């Protein structure tokens, strides 16, 4: 058994500089303590945690399929637990240096499968119980937006890398970012800028409704409140709005880069 790391060391090595507010507030405090508990055991590998998260996600999908409210509560609890385990695999990899390209691939694929299976369980189960076809349409939209969001993030990362000649520049929607500089507040500082600084100081990325919040709202808040369709629809609107904002920012960034490249150089008199 390896040495157990202090909690402060685990936080320093495994916390991302910027992350989703749901992760910062509702996942990291629990995940870091669980990582401290299991990290000395070399048998607890990132890939095994990824597989365990997927298995727990299957349990969540089955609970959702049962459709009754107690089962919906259990499904929401299991979905959150599966996400905690999914966060732990990355933390263990960073803490022990045991990450791998295959592990990244496995984590990505099983994450998307877990969302799809849980969507079938939640919305398919409600359709089977009520006969309301709206559940099927909303479930399809949820799966589509989840896939689009992650494919879009990958492509946006490639575009930014190309614009910067291979230097990957992360944007606000990314979980990990480089050193964050928080300007000093001034009397004329806008409320939006003060909010942004507050979020950055607390490790919360300004992209407030990402794929993580989308999943948590749909598969936790919706079942718990028994407002599955309403929460999913509102979450979808927020998801699309924030993705459009990111696309607009990328367009503006690319346009600015092109303008700087095309600006003629003024000869300097000698």
Textual characterization of the structure:
With 270 residues, the protein is an all-alpha fold. The protein has one domain (7-178, 188-260): CDP-alcohol phosphotransferase transmembrane (TM) domain (Four Helix Bundle (Hemerythrin (Met), subunit A), Up-down Bundle). It has 10 helices and no strands. Helix 6 (101-130) runs antiparallel to helix 7 (134-163) and helix 7 (134-163) packs antiparallel against helix 9. The longest helix is centred in the C-terminal third of the chain and has 35 residues, at 228-262. The model is unreliable at 166-183 (pLDDT under 50).
Task: Indicate the topology.
Blueprint: H1 7-14, H2 21-26, H3 28-38, H4 46-66, H5 69-96, H6 101-130, H7 134-163, H8 191-201, H9 211-225, H10 228-262
Helix pairs in contact: 1-3, 3-5, 4-5, 4-6, 5-9, 6-7, 7-9, 7-10, 9-10
